[in-house]
Amino acid sequence: MTIIRFPETAYEILSLLSTEELLSQSEINELLDNRDKKEIKYAIRRLQENEVIQIEPNLLDMRSSSYRLSTETELSQAEQLLTDEVFQRITDAIYGDIISSTHPLAHSHA
Questions:
Q1: Structural domain tally of the chain?
Q2: Fewest CB atoms within 10 Å of the CB: 13, 15, 33, 72?
């Protein structure tokens, strides 16, 4: 199954995670306070289901967890599920427009 698109909030979350190593859902909610919490939760779920982000348990408090970007290896495995357009938007959100055009993952999907 090929993913045709993600909600716009998903790209905002990727952009946040590109500057922060780990963020909890409550931190993401706080940083994207202009977005509905259900919208954020849905975007996180879609990104996680498609292996674009990974969940990291909080070892000090197992009731909470944080999210991180997938590594390049994890992301290259996930790219098979994504259309070219979605993959390009993901690399743009993570690496920025200028970097994504020179990043190895951007060329591997073309």
A1: 1
A2: 33
SS3 of 23, please? Answer: strand
Helix boundaries (H) for the chain? 8-19, 25-31, 37-49, 72-78, 84-95, 97-100, 104-108
Q: How does pLDDT run across 20-74, given as a tens digit for each residue? A: 989 999 999 999 998 999 999 999 999 999 889 999 998 888 888 999 999 888 8
96: domain CATH number is: 1.10.10.10
Contacts of 74 by beta carbon, 8 Å cutoff, 6+ apart: 51, 54
Under a CB-based contact definition with an 8 Å cutoff, are residues 66 and 26 in contact? no
Best CA proximity match to 92, nearest among 10, 33, 3, 25: 10
